[in-house]
Amino acid sequence: MVKKSMKKLFVGLAAFSYAATMSASADALSTSKNFFQPRAFSANLAREMLLEGSKHRDAEGWYGEFSADAVYQRSWNQGNEQGSGVEVVNGLGTFPFWSGTNSMTVGTNNGLSSLDAYQFGLGSVTGTGSITLNPLVYQAGADFMFVVGSSANEPCFFAKIKAPVGVYNISPQLTEVEAVPSTYSNYQLSSATAGSVVEPAIKMTQAFAGNLPGGQAASGDFIQMQHGLINGDQSTGAKFGDIEMTAGYRFISNEDNSFSVAVRAAAPTGGQATGEFMMEPIFGRGGNWGLGGYLDGHVRVWQGNNENSMVLKFMANAMHLFSTDTVRSYDLLENGAGSKYLLVANYNGGVYNSQIQNLINISTLASTSSFGVEGDAVVSFSYIARGWSWDLGYEFWGRSAESLEITGNFAEGYAVLGRQTVQQSGATFNSLCEPLAKINASQASAASAQALPTGVKSALSADSQVSLAQLNVEGAQQDTALTSKVFTKVTYEWIDSNYRPHLGVMGELEISTSNNNALPQWAIAVMGGVSF
Questions:
Q1: Rounded to an integer, what distance in angstroms lies between the CA atom of residue 147 and that of residue 19?
Q2: Cβ atoms of residues 328 and 282 within 8 Å
Q3: What are the structural domains of the chain?
Q4: What is the pTM of this model?
Q5: Parallel, antiparallel, or unpaired: how do β-strands 243-253 and 257-267 relate?
């Protein structure tokens, strides 16, 4: 009966893994997303399986086990060779950029570069530059797990709780080949007031950091970026992660076989998104509660003559992640990827209100986030010999696409400028905008009211201004994320001790199987525990 049940389980898991991988393979590369929801530190069934030692078979009635680990995990660039270089496809650097790589060219408004430097306050640059994002992500922490059961040798009720604590750090490693700015005009991103106007930025790194050159005070009408920033290392500091609780029944429980079914819940205690930084570290699931099911078991597939044996172990869970509050930054549907960084001017009330800023300052809004399902399945072979054991296994993890809904209030009355100036000294016209401007392509500033460039309109008209319905909610959602992992562990268990202490070292290597929607990473861990 056990073997038949296990066969059905493994066939089901294999079918789910194959179907999910095939469906994700057709997805486009995820770009222009200012938030990355990582795999939670606690969402690691491979570590959870290997944290558990042998049950205290000599115990009558209730048994228990306490175990813990110390883990360091770090991202790596999973790329595809293109020509003489390497284009990073599965690296996190491509995630917020809209070029499809981790580099973007910086140029003029002719559509040949990834972005127009003018939109970031650099003015009309006279040469092409570039910016490159090569983030380094690491998590360091520990899992603490307590398991208790009503019987070590017979079918029983059991429960376990796992609580992680750790730190999540992102080092953006943003580098720049500077484009050469032109001399700044008094009327670019400023009012018509005569006199010197401080340039909002002279480098892209300054613009993304929200800093004025030389630490100068703001001048003119331009409001610096307050969201979607890239400004040095970002860290969560030490935090508790999602606490996972499992309770169920072990239908089969003996030396050779076991099979359990349980209910699992995850309680969020980590951080939530604020929208301040382009890549925000989140330790945990970002605030989502989880509820679902859990399976585990083992089969002794071979027994030797020298106290050695081979055991096949499996563990799987699937949870729905309920809606939680979050903050996200949105592009415009008609203006394309990266449009969240376009310049907009405030025309609320039908007049220019002396405010120009990047759209992201007003398109970063309170939202709710949920995921249909997150699943994890792991299979491991363990060779056991006189206290020593060696594990080698495979883990599949996946999460369905996110569902986002905007709940915050959107500021009305803003118009996309493109390259249009809000006022021009001595001219008889003003208040122009280009509603369909793109981050790398827009019309030059209008020279007269009688010869407006294509797509340039009056900014005073309500149909020229940005509305909530124009925000690209689907484009901001996290796409399906899938990973595959191989892992190994060497353990020694003091089998002659009443408490069966065990100590082991584990290594794991994880790859993304869904473009760059999940983070490739490797990890090392030291783990141990005692039974009673």
A1: 34
A2: no
A3: 2-91+135-172+233-413+466-531 (2.40.160.40)
A4: 0.89
A5: antiparallel
Task: Give the separation between CA 469 and CA 458, rounded to whole angstroms.
Answer: 20
Q: Which element (helix H / strand E) includes 3?
A: helix 2-25
Residue with tokens 């890239």: 230
Q: State the Cα–Cα distance between residues 423 and 442, nearest whole angstrom.
A: 18
Q: Structure tokens of 33?
A: 């997303």
User: Over the stretch 292-331, which tens digit does the pLDDT of each residue have?
Assistant: 999 999 999 999 888 899 999 999 999 999 999 999 999 9
Nearest to 271 by CA among 263, 258, 281: 281
Greatest CA separation for the chain = 99
Task: Tell which residue, 484, 480, 439, 512, has the closest CA to residue 89.
Answer: 512
Q: Provide φ and ψ at 441, rounded to 5°.
A: -150, 120
pLDDT in tens, 246-287: 999 999 998 899 999 999 999 998 788 999 999 899 999 999
Phi-psi region of 367 (alpha: psi -120 to 50; beta: other; left: phi over 0): beta
Closest-CA residue to 403 (of 37, 99, 96, 92): 37
Return the bridge partners of 346, or none. Answer: 414
Taken in order 173, 178, 179, 181, is the CA torsion positive or negative?
A: positive
- Cα 444-449-454 angle, rounded to 5 deg: 45
Strand, coil or helix: 443:
coil
| CA-angle at 397, arms to 392 and 399, nearest 5° | 175
Alpha-carbon distance values, 49 to 145, 151, 160, 338 (Å): 11, 19, 12, 42
Total residue count of the chain as it appears in this document: 532
Q: Where are the alpha helices (DSSP H) in 185-234?
A: 204-209
